[in-house]
Amino acid sequence: DAGVIQSPRHEVTEMGQEVTLRCKPISGHDYLFWYRQTMMRGLELLIYFNNNVPIDDSGMPEDRFSAKMPNASFSTLKIQPSEPRDSAVYFCASSLSEYEQYFGPGTRLTVT
Amino acid sequence: KQEVTQIPAALSVPEGENLVLNCSFTDSAIYNLQWFRQDPGKGLTSLLLIQSSQREQTSGRLNASLDKSSGRSTLYIAASQPGDSATYLCAVNNNDMRFGAGTRLTVKP
Fold this sequence. Notes:
The structure holds two protein chains of two kinds.
Chain A: E1 5-7, E2 10-13, E3 19-24, E4 31-38, E5 42-50, E6 53-56, E7 65-71, E8 74-79, E9 88-95, E10 102-103, E11 107-111
Parallel strand pairs in A: 2-11
Antiparallel strand pairs in A: 1-3, 3-8, 4-5, 4-9, 5-6, 7-8, 9-10, 9-11
Chain B: E1 4-7, E2 10-14, E3 19-25, E4 32-38, E5 44-51, E6 56-59, E7 62-67, E8 72-77, E9 86-93, E10 97-99, E11 103-108
Parallel strand pairs in B: 2-11
Antiparallel strand pairs in B: 1-3, 3-8, 4-5, 4-9, 6-7, 7-8, 9-10, 9-11
């Protein structure tokens, strides 16, 4: 398996634009997690899904953030409108039930 | 390549006991170190983040220390409770986040 795949790897956009981050989990995994990493706050859980259903979105910072998982092999994290403070590395991870989480390479987002 | 080791792999203690979890890393050129709690079927919960310039961080009954020069961090849990039962992960960030294998903690009532 290729592991967790995220795209794009880097995204630079202007304030106010819509940003969509994509994730393909490892085949067969039933959990998918979205995290955000900044130097000041470290890694923070944003939202996670189990069997494509959002379980806990309490970490989503604002209504500007939304996440979907239309099927078992794809998830998106959308920011609309984006702001400079959203600049961070966004990680997607997947796991099989309660076992180890496998992280993707991350998307480095810069909002100017 | 950064290697992160956590000792012990598992720990079982009676309620009320103070305990220490250990994390060691091989490359001391880190930006920060973070301790997480993982419960079955849930995402990682951040407990404490220590920046490279800091020596320790405290939150409630938790205290984490960092000694970069020796490549060590400890997580101290005071007056443990059954609700503290979980797997505790440390992660080291030096432009590439590396996780330890975790310590599975069981606190018995």
